[in-house]
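pipeline: protein-struct stage 2 | run 1193 | tRNA (guanine-N(7)-)-methyltransferase
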Amino acid sequence: MRLRNKPGAKETILAHPHYILDDGSQWKGKWQERFEKAQPIHIEVGSGKGQFIVEMAKAHPEINYIGIELQTNAIIAILEKQMEEKLPNLQLLLVNGADLTDYFADGEVDLVYLNFSDPWPKTKHEKRRLTFHTFLKTYETIAKPKAELHFKTDNQGLFEYSLASVTWYGMTIKQVWLDLHTSDYEGNIMTEYEEKFSGRGERIYRLEAIFNGKDVE
């Protein structure tokens, strides 16, 4: 989805450093200090326009959330929501998800969300998929022992690839949903993409997997 350029987006970001950072390296190992109180930290890599991360923060005040997004025009939409909500348990980070070890210390994160990531369907682009093993290694590095990865997509090919990738990496598959919206899963919070795809009757896939400390190069 292409987003229109928002006039003054960069200026708005710079004007709200208490909610958003474009370089979080100075907070590496100290993210709890950015929040009102110390609580488990959940991050979403690729937050888009932020419906999921904002609604999760509203629904779970006992968890601290960090939305990570590379596109300025997307994260400004999240910032606008946060400027209205003023959620004490939500922070935003405008950085590349491939560089998370620059911004988080080892074992600082309790859970990682990947929602409707770009499927990069061509084989030559496999390394760009957010469930490729180098990304999994990055998540595991910043995550606590036995932390979880929660993944949702409408793309069957990416879902099958991701199942194979996390299995090969040595993660434990906790649970799989092949048609989330017809299941008995409770508490699902939809992203903008999820609303769009499910509204067209498309199937939504979901998995939860646990990191087991396997070292893969």
